[in-house]
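Could you please consider the sequence and fold following this short note?
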Amino acid sequence: MPGLLQTCEELFSTRDLYKVIGVENTASEKEVKKGYYRMSMRFHPDRNSEDEKSTEKFQALSKVYSVLSDSGKRALYDESGEVEDEVDVDQDRDWVSYWRLLFPQVTLQAIKEFEQKYKGSEEELEDLKAAYLEHEGDMDGIMESVTLATMEDEPRFRGLLQELVESDDLPDYAAFSQEGRSKKQHRKRKAKKEAKEAEAMRKELGMDDSEDALKKMIAQRNQSRETGFNSFMADLEARYAPKGKKTKKGKK
């Protein structure tokens, strides 16, 4: 099993744990926790069950935080650039439960409230600027990097970035200012396809935007135990199913 640094390199294209959660290496304990929260919201299983990589990234983010939130492990990492005894980073921990232990009040409503607060904020603008620089103006990378970004946000992002380029606050990358029409259309087609697939899945499971819809997913689990949702459904069952009605161990 690959170590934490190798996993981060594979999933986030960097071995820098601070970059993984989007903070400076001088970040305070509070800033580290905030960075972890912001990034983990992007890949939280409750929000991204259809994304094959989201669970892996969410688990990796939790492991990064478990290192950077420990003063001893963080000091060693800062000094050597390595994580001591990476196998000791608990590979079998329930990282979703660990996340909820840190942020116990998080619900679907809380995620929606976070989205409303984040979009249009200074924090989002800083993330947008960082994504523009990291991907050198490539809108594909920018749209994938900014937390909670959707295709509906692209015109707004373009307007903000154009203003920053014109005011010389950001460099004028050719990938941004000279992006071809075909590339833009390809991105839109891809987004529409993913939206249709997500909507089809929601309809198949009888879901809407309410938390009650998650209970329907639990019922679906009992009819489709062979699907790839088993571990995710088990977590939802523990969270939302009425007490005293859990499936007995070993029962099919």
